[in-house]
Structure formats: structure tokens, C-alpha cells
Amino acid sequence: MRLISRRKKIYALAGDTKMSVLAELTRTSSVPDHRIVATAQGQPHEESTLDSLFSSGPLIKGDLAIALPLSSFETVNFSLPAMPDSSVGKAVPYHLGKAITTPLNEHIYDWQITNRQKEELRITAYLFPIKSFNQMRKNLKTQKLEIRYLEADVFAAFAYLSRDHRLNLKETSLCVLLWPENISLAVFDNGVLSLVRTVDTPKPDLTYGNVPEPEEKALEETPGRPEPDAESFLLADSEVDSLLRDFDLYTGETENGDDLSLSLENVEDLTPPPPTPMAATTVSSRPDYIQSVGLEIMRTRDYYSSIIKGDPIKKVVVSGAEDFWEDFLELTTKAVNIDIEPLARTPLETVCSSSLAAICIGAGIRY
What we know:
A hairpin with a 3-residue loop joins strand 1 and strand 2 (19-26). The protein has helices at 47-54, 85-99, 130-141, 153-163, 286-306, 325-336, 354-364; strands at 10-15, 19-26, 33-41, 62-68, 74-81, 107-116, 120-129, 145-152, 173-178, 183-189, 192-199, 315-319, 339-342. Helix 4 crosses helix 7 (354-364). The protein has seven helices and 13 strands. It is of the alpha/beta class.
């Protein structure tokens, strides 16, 4: 007799500083899809936002994956003496505690070996405030939702690309996510995110009637502007009791059939310590904003090539420019001379942005 499977439903929650989206992941075919359950104004970790998400619908029960902008996480780099991988986990809390200014027990965190030298290991740790996490978990439990994954937007974005067979292990790609208050950038190279950075660049009001015509000029470097903030965001296999779970890429296959899962044993020659963070960039019009984003793409490209000594970036994937895509493509392509394509090739939703829908799909696709 065939038994009916009653697996838990899988949900994904994603958001920026202005809007949050809850989606149910469905599998009507071999490719996972999604259904938007609810949207609300506000950030996902805010109690009022979660109340709004669930105020108009029935009780929801299942497992939940959460994707937040990269700027929501604190990134710390430090070194350890060369030691067996099995010993690294015991040494990380002590060294990480010395590297941050607040008590370590005020965070949940995960870490990864990002570089292996003969005499030392380079570690990158990623921290999230435990107070915010516990508040989210408390509010979500009222809906019978259990948090299973918490990750940064760039990992969900590359997972979404993997679902569509648009990742190539032999091709270095840059993903750029444009949010209302900041930009998330990540370089995918040889199966890992080898460079990730976030820049505070608020998006101006680009609503109809308040948008100047784009200027016909190529992007140029601004004299005297600081070098980019090249923060590493490479995350490791989670420990059994870790709350930041599985920040790895979608364990699927690329268009060449290569496995895309993240493996600590194969991570080497990656990001050096990041330079000093940049100050926020202020822009007031569409052309200024497009130029600012283009400059960050160029800085990331040049830093990756000249400092990290990585392979040339062959493709740039952008999300969040849907409302001004033609202008963005025209101005930016002239400057960076790299193929540029949207994260979502076709509109995914009418009730929320394609950016948030794509991040939801990427966040929930691996569970």
C-alpha cells in the first residue's frame, strides 16, 4: 500500500528596509516555483511587519528560510595558526570574541576558512544580533513557522541563478542587488562567492514625474574617491547547534553539470582582509544613481582583478533596476564593457518586486 507523504510546507521570507515578502515554495515540476502568500511594509525582523504579514490570512505552518540584505550582517576577518580543520571550530569563539567590540554571546554567528597558507588559516565570520533573531523566532512561532535557514541576499540570488542553469563554474560573475538604502555585490568564481561587499547608496525617489531624463555620458571614476569596501562573505558548513544555517549555494548543478555545493576542503586562495569601509554615497536623480552603481561595479571588478588576483569578470547580473533598466543598461554597459543581464529575465510578480520574489525563491530552494 502506498503511503501519502505529509512533508512540511516550505516558506521563504525576504525583505529590505521598506518591504517584506513571504512566499511558499512549491514543486509542480522538476523546477521549484513559488507562491506569494503575503507582503507588508517594513523590514522582516520588525514585529509590526510580521504582524502585518499574517494579519489577513489563515494560520501558516511549516519550515522557514530567511534572506536579508548583506548589510544586516557584521563581517569579521581574522587569522588562526595552521591547524587541522577539526580543531578550527574550537578556536574560533575565542579569537572572534577578541576581534569584536561587543560580547560574543550577543550574536549568533557562522564562519568559514577563506584562505589557507602554510602557517595560517584566514577565517571570515558572520554575525547577526541574537536579540533580533530571537524576536523573529518568537513572532514566527505564533504562526507555527520554524526558522531553518538564515542567509544573506547574495547567496539566495546565486541560488536563484543556479535554479535557472545560469551559473558556470568556469565563468566569473558579479551579482549586484540594488536595495532602497544600499547595494549588495558578490563575485562568483570557481564555485564560491570569493568576494562580497555592501555599499550604503540610497536609491533616490524614481517614481513617475520625479525622474530627470538620463544624461548621455559614460561613467567615469570620481577623483579622490576612497577605494571599495571589499568585505568577504564566504560562509561555512554549519555546526549541529548553529542557528545561522547552511549559507552555501544551492546544491544543484550548473549548466555544465558541475556540482555547486560549497566545500571547505576546496576553498583556497580567496579574499584578503577588506579595506576601510566607504561612506554612504548621496544621489538625487536617476542618472546620478546609475553612475554611482556603475562606479561600484567598476571598483569591484578592478579590486578583484588587481588585489585579489582573480579571473576577469565576464558577466554582471543586476536586480533592482527593473524600473529604469534600459537607461541603466545603456549607460553602464558603455563604462564597464561587460555583459549585463537582469537577475529575473521575466517579471516574477505583480504584488511585489521581482527582486524580492527571486530572493525568496533562492532562499527556500535548498531546503
